[in-house]
Amino acid sequence: MRLVFGLIIGYIFGSIPSSYLVGKLIGRVDLREKGSGNLGTTNVIRNLGLAAGILAYVLDMLKGLIPVLLVHRFWGYSPAIMTGIGAIVGHCYSLFFNFQGGKGIAVSSGVLFALDPLIAMILITGQLIIFFTTRMMGLASIVSAIAFPMVSVLLRGVGPLFYAAFFMTPFVIFQHRANLKRLLEGTENKL
Q: Is residue 190 part of a domain?
């Protein structure tokens, strides 16, 4: 039952539309109608600048970090993993916006920091290196998602986090399917 409650708690936290709120409060814009229409960090940066993008990233990250830490503290590791999965799904399919949202990268970072800070740091460092080399956040996010199960099994072996990676990796790649298509066509936007 704690697994189900963890999933629900995560979904509710993840559904909080932080990028939308940043858009409305800082730029007085509805980000669903600007740029890519995506409620995520990259669209915030493109439309409102780096400072607003960093704020959106931190708020999105906290949507994953806070509920996972709380559930882990009171109910244990496996319910915390389910909370993280719920937060990622809630961010991508927010109950507040007809099941639309972001692509799940910032909230995934928060989830991973709560579950395994070392793995989170490795993946985020790799993602940043790829981003600063290519200026393509979509590519950096996809590579980081693909690396997650491999880094997890190398550092922690086969366990709950490794199994969670098998949900999170294809889910995040699916959320980036338009980016993947543009990458294959050679038309991916640079930031």
A: no
